[in-house]
Amino acid sequence: MRPEQHRQADADAKSAGRLKVGFVLARSFTLSAFALFVDTLRLASDEQDRSGRVLADWQVIGSTRHLITASCGVQVAPTSDFVDPSRFDYIVVVGGLLTVENPVDQETIAFLKQADAKKVPLIGVCTGSFILAAAGLMKRHDSCVSWLHYKEFRERFPDLSVRSDRLFNLDRQRGSCAGGSSSADMAALLVRKYISRDAERNALEVLQIEKARTSADIQPRRPLYDNYDDARVKAAMITMEQFVDGSMSIQKLAATVGLSRRQLERIFIDKTGMSPAKAYNRVRMERAKSILAQSKAPLIEIALDVGFENASQFTRTFKRTFGQTPSQHRAASRAH
Q: Are 67 and 28 in contact (CB under 8 A)?
């Protein structure tokens, strides 16, 4: 395609309105979340990494043209003033540090409310969902946040629905994602919906992402041992995760941290409220829970991976731990 053909294709795409995204960047926004989202659009919009806006268009919009500083210190200039929000298919709010008292100004809040009134879908990326929630724009919608921010979201907005078990969520007129690499996953979903699967595949290949994860994929989480501040408990639980097949005896486990079995049991009861054996079982069940949600592996295969001899024994233990069978948990994960 010659340069003049590229320009014409770009103009045609804009007039057709294939996929247009407006980005609102908060003060101290997360650069990686913004970059991964916008680069997924860029790479999907044209062939051979020419950066032409053939199939998609995007703007960084703001109440002023002043530079916006990311949490890492890099500055980004808005490319558009606030315009009629209905020009965009989506408005994406990229959040960042929660310690910033006023991440966006009142003009921005008014613009987001105008977009809502005109039925333009709003997406909160990273802590962008906090901004939308504070503006009263997440009522009757789920907010997906990082597990790092789940507790603070609950404290700030106790009446709103929030989850930290998924990478992202698209809930009618709202979207939200945990940030980081999940920004590319959410952008890929929009590309697939508005452009094509080929465009999605092209973007992810250039970004060196093997495949897009879905809204059913589980968010990587802090390991269980991070819940406890005793070094011996942490060391023991790290070892449990390394021997998730259950092959490490409690006696040997105690020896790895320089304790007798009885000493280890006393410390676990004191620091975690459960015995080492129960903690070990929990670690194995959490691993099984993650595998169930993220793969189609047969139950017997998962059972063997976490140290059970048969699927029925595994099913009983799983249900006793989580209140539902492995099959029920997998079905529920797929439904979201």
A: no
Domain count, the chain: 2
- 227 and 114, same domain (yes or no): no
Per DSSP bridges, beta strands 142-144 and 161-163 are: parallel
Mind listing the pLDDT tens digit for each residue in 74-97? 999 999 999 999 999 999 999 999
Given a contact cutoff of 8 angstroms between Cβ atoms, the answer to whether 270 and 264 are in contact is no
Asked if residue 3 has pLDDT above 50, the reply is no
Exposed, middle or buried by CB within 10 Å (0-12, 13-18, 19+), for 310? exposed
- The C-alpha atoms of residue 165 and residue 334 are separated, in whole angstroms, by 13
Residues 185/212, Cβ–Cβ less than 8 Å: yes
Is the separation of the CB atoms in 139 and 171 below 8 Å? no
Alpha carbon distance 230, 237 (integer Å): 11
Q: Determine the structural domain holding residue 78 and report its residue range.
A: 19-207
Quick count: other Cβ atoms within 10 Å of Cβ 75?
10
- Rg (alpha carbons) of the chain, rounded to whole number: 24
Rounded Cα distance between 145 and 84, Å, is: 28
The answer to whether the CB of 94 falls within 8 A of the CB of 30 is yes
